TrEMBL record:
It comes from the Bacteria. It holds the Pfam family Pyr_redox_3. SUPFAM superfamilies: FAD/NAD(P)-binding domain (SSF51905). InterPro entries: Auxin_biosynth/cation_transpt, CHP04046_FMN-dependent, FAD/NAD-bd_sf. This is MSMEG_0569 family flavin-dependent oxidoreductase. Gene3D superfamilies: FAD/NAD(P)-binding domain (3.50.50.60). Keywords: Oxidoreductase. PANTHER family: FLAVIN-BINDING MONOOXYGENASE-LIKE PROTEIN (AFU_ORTHOLOGUE AFUA_4G09220), FLAVIN-CONTAINING MONOOXYGENASE. It comes from Nocardia jiangsuensis.
């Protein structure tokens, strides 16, 4: 039989590892570091290249919203000249790539996982772009933001108007000339609106219900105060609302130019047009909005003020000498709420949808998901033996979705993985 025909008649070669980690971003790499220290055989499978989301999935002027001193991974920490600053996109990419290189993380790139199933002989079978694998245990480190979402009525936009999701936004110059409508004010939407505004573009912004936080208060970054207060360490089950916190939108703020508040009211004074939540789009190209603008602005301010109240209380209890600071006073209020916008008449050339993502775990064939497709777990440990998640928002605490607590989450899972491996050997 010819050598060329033989592979079609023989079973594919299956490569085995004790542990396979799906995803080579900072969360997967943190788990890998712990497994490497314990001498546990493992492999990271990455559909693209290591840490590529930091380079390919952010806009040109992106910066972290958490200070550089919080960028701490197991055995590795930011050691640059600006610990209180905020790394830009490419700096974060180099930081995470440098982490992978620092311990020789065993990453197989361009090996996107197509299916993970329970193996009849135990463990898990994985089908990937790089072939077939088997692992005793699997860690899913693909994050929680997989598929960009847009409202169904987006299909009614006139063909002459460019539309893209925030995940595809790169810069003001990359959009056609004209006014831009940004829909949504989570972290991405608010920062993209600011990016366009600072570039001198005419911006129309549909404001959602995202909260905000002050960048600095009483002489320090609010993140520093909250860190000292242990706010990022409170388990989700001890938070008001419990696991419902996982559905919360992040507070908007920016690390740009050394860090500052994002004040949508100030933007309005400077010419940005604000609306309530976008509710629909008429066939003639008229966008519709509800009358939630003032309520949303007030609610965002109330959250920021509540955080300041908590900081004040901590300062008082701890007897800290910190400068006093006047509270924020709204600089603008809508005289009336506009509920319609003729996109053509307003010269809108582009719409940026910043309304979130949905999960997509169709490749993971395990009964560990709720009715909305979110994984069910306790600190990343699922009911399917040897299957774990890491790097999800609120996996265990508020810090879980950021650099701040990935080290802790990764260590916890590595301990569970090591214990399971030991039990298997003993059996």
């Amino acid at each position: 039989m010819s050598e060329q025909l033989a592979p079609t008649l023989c079973p594919p070669r299956v490569r085995h590892h004790d542990v396979i980690v799906v995803g080579a971003g900072q969360a997967g790499l943190a788990v890998s570091w712990h497994l490497t220290r314990r001498g546990i055989d493992h492999l990271l499978l990455e559909r693209d290249t290591t840490a590529h989301e930091w380079r390919d999935g952010r806009w040109d002027n992106f910066t972290l919203v958490t200070p550089n001193w919080q960028c701490v991974l197991p055995g590795y920490a930011y050691d640059g000249p600006d610990p209180d600053g905020f790394m830009a996109r490419d700096e974060v990419y180099r930081f995470v790539r440098g982490y992978a290189d620092s311990f020789g993380a065993p990453v197989l790139e361009h090996a996107g996982v197509r299916a993970v199933t329970r193996a009849p002989r135990g463990g898990y079978d994985l089908e990937t772009a790089a072939g077939s694998f088997h692992a005793n245990q699997v860690v899913v480190a693909t994050g929680g933001y997989h598929v960009p979402t847009v409202p169904r009525f987006a299909e009614r936009l006139p063909a002459s108007i460019t539309q893209l999701h925030s995940a595809g936004y790169r810069s003001p110059a990359a959009l056609p000339a004209g006014a831009v409508l940004v829909v949504g004010t989570g972290q991405s939407g608010a920062q993209i609106a600011e990016d366009l505004h600072l570039a001198g573009r005419e911006v129309h912004l549909a404001v959602g219900n995202a909260p905000r936080v002050a960048r600095f208060y009483r002489g320090r970054d609010c993140v520093a105060w909250l860190h000292d207060m242990g706010h990022y360490d409170v388990p989700i089950e001890d938070q008001p609302g419990g696991i419902g916190k996982r559905e919360n939108t992040n507070h908007y703020v920016t690390g740009r130019d050394g860090g500052r508040d994002i004040d949508l009211r100030r933007f309005a004074l400077e010419g940005m047009a604000l609306y309530g939540r976008m509710t629909g789009l008429d066939p003639d190209g008229t966008a519709r909005f509800d009358t939630s603008l003032e309520r949303s602005l007030d609610a965002a301010d109330a959250v920021a003020d509540g955080i300041k109240n908590a900081i004040d209380g901590y300062i008082a209890r701890a007897g800290i000498d910190a400068p006093m600071e006047p509270r924020y006073t709204p600089v603008w209020r809508p005289e009336h709420e506009r509920t319609a916008l003729d996109l053509r008449a307003a010269g809108i050339s582009a719409v940026v949808w910043s309304v979130g993502f949905r999960t997509d775990y169709r490749w993971l064939r395990a009964g560990v998901f709720d009715g909305e497709g979110h994984p069910c777990h306790n600190r990343g440990v699922t009911t399917s033996p040897g299957l774990y998640f890491v790097g999800l928002p609120w996996l265990h605490t508020w810090g879980s979705g950021r650099f701040a607590a990935i080290a802790r989450d990764a260590e916890y899972l590595a301990e569970r993985i090591a214990a399971a491996a030991t039990a298997t050997v003993a059996a």
